[in-house]
Amino acid sequence: MLPSTEHSLDIGLRELSNTINLILTVTMVSAVIMSLLFLSELNYYLSVQVDQELIVDTMRGQKMKIFVDVTFPRIGCKCK
């Protein structure tokens, strides 16, 4: 009985080892995918996107006063 017990134990350990290797591989691949997705979303969140657009509704049929306040912080003033 002793040799058959060792043989079945050896087969059981091999199956367990194969299962553990499969689980480890799936976990590592999943971790890499999640890290890439996280970094991609973080990059998108931290990036600045400026859309400068002005849309005037002409269907109202009324005149509208539009005031535009423009500031140029780095242009010197030439006053005479």
Descriptive report:
The chain has 80 residues and is an all-alpha fold. The protein is built from one helix and no strands. It has one helix at 2-46. It is elongated, with a radius of gyration of 34 Å. The chain has a domain at 2-46.
Name some characteristics of this structure.
80 residues, mainly alpha, 1 helix, elongated
Architecture blueprint of SSEs:
Layout lengths: L1 H45 L34
The gist of it:
The chain has 80 residues and is mostly helical. The chain has one helix at 2-46.
Instruction: Please give the count of helices.
Output: 1
The fraction of residues in strands falls at under 5%
- Number of extended strands: 0
Principal-axes shape call = elongated
What is the CA-atom radius of gyration, in angstroms? 34 Å
Q: Strand count, sense and closure of the main sheet?
A: none
| Span of the ends, CA to CA | 110 Å
Low-confidence stretches: none
Supply the helix-strand structural class: mainly alpha
Helix content: 55-70%
Oligomer: single chain
Mean pLDDT across residues: 82
Secondary-structure element string: H
